[in-house]
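[Automated response] Your request has been received and processed.

Submitted sequence:
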Amino acid sequence: MVELRELDNDAVALLAHFTYLAIYVPVGVAAPPAAIVYEEPLLQAFFDNFGGRRGDLGLAAYEGDICTGAAWLRVIAGGYGHVDFEEIGDTPELAIAVEPEYRGLGIGTRLLIELFKLATAKGWRQVSLSVQKENRAYALYRRLGFKVFRDKGEDYLMLKQLRP
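Generated structure:
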């Protein structure tokens, strides 16, 4: 049985791993080296000093001692999913990843539903994300209420309104 746990300030290494897993790699294309999450500032922004900034909120899914997935929110100035007019706005950006061998089991859906409940309770009105058009997660985001905010060519900038 999968247990969801709220992420804390010690989650940086865990989120670095899941940030890497969240990178969309098309079929037939070699995955980048894992070190890319520490080399690219926009990727590092998803986990660096997690828990120390406004908007940091997340959940991890565990099966026993094994972390099978994570979903988290963070306000990222100029991030991939930035939708606000100001450089630092009021819309946290979503990141989510599930270990490959646990995908398709509903873990991602459960993580997102519970994360949206937490975000709503904390007063967040909306969340955003960026997803490549070819990524099969796009269907999950649509099913959970995300709408296309902007077509950016190869990817969509999406927005979900949260209901109190």
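Summary generated for your ticket: The CA atoms of residues 2 and 64 lie 8 Å apart. Strands lie at 3-6, 57-63, 66-74, 93-98, 126-132, 147-151, 155-161.
If you did not submit this request, please reply to this message.
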